[in-house]
């Protein structure tokens, strides 16, 4: 870690920024539950048969993992700045990469990434009318992301010396995970946008009646 931004400062700043974004996330999560559980434009619960239980499960899992990540970050800062009394101070505690809180934070990140990318693949699958061919490459990228994440966890568990994220054994797997998930997200978002546009402007797509066409139809009916 660079001396200009030591790990101790980075952990505090990271926890602060994550807490802000977590608060924003809670607002959007509430809006998500509102759409999934209640009728449109009214505070009336949907019937059980009308609830998308799959999406509700995914939203719940993402909320649990997001909450765990903030909790693990808080616990790690308490460990380093309050409870750790060994040599090296807080820096030595943060450098213990095999510590269970470090491993659980990484596992939490890998799980969130896998679920989020999986939902993106599902959206692509639905936009292209359940075409298996459109999701073969994204699934391969998703599997590569998951393998990279598992490799990160293995390196963290098996590393016995003090190390940070730029450690040579860990850095290459983190780069792989970031590249795979970035390529997956960008390529699939572009595919979804193109597929949605093609459906909207397709001649087979039902046209939305304009006000002039409605007026013409009404006049014809009266005549």
Automatic annotation (TrEMBL):
<protein>
    <submittedName>
        <fullName>Uncharacterized protein</fullName>
    </submittedName>
</protein>
């Amino acid at each position: 870690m660079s001396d200009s931004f030591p790990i101790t400062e980075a952990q505090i700043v990271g926890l602060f920024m994550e807490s802000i974004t977590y608060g924003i996330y809670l607002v959007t999560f509430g809006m998500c539950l509102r759409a999934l559980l209640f009728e449109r434009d009214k505070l009336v619960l949907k019937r059980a048969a009308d609830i998308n239980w799959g999406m509700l499960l995914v939203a719940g899992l993402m909320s649990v993992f997001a909450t765990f990540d903030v909790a693990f970050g808080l616990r790690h800062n308490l460990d380093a700045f309050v409870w750790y009394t060994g040599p090296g101070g807080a820096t030595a505690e943060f450098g213990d990469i095999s510590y269970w809180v470090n491993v659980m934070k990484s596992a939490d990140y890998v799980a969130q990434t896998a679920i989020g990318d999986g939902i993106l693949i599902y959206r692509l699958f639905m936009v292209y009318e359940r075409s298996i061919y459109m999701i073969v490459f994204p699934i391969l990228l998703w599997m590569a992301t998951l393998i990279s994440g598992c490799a990160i966890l293995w390196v963290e568990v098996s590393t016995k010396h003090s190390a940070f994220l730029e450690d040579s054994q860990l850095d290459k797997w983190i780069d792989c995970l970031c590249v795979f998930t970035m390529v997956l997200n960008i390529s699939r978002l572009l595919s979804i946008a193109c597929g949605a546009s093609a459906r909207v402007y397709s001649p087979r797509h039902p046209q939305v009646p304009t006000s002039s066409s409605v007026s013409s139809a009404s006049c014809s009916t009266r005549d």
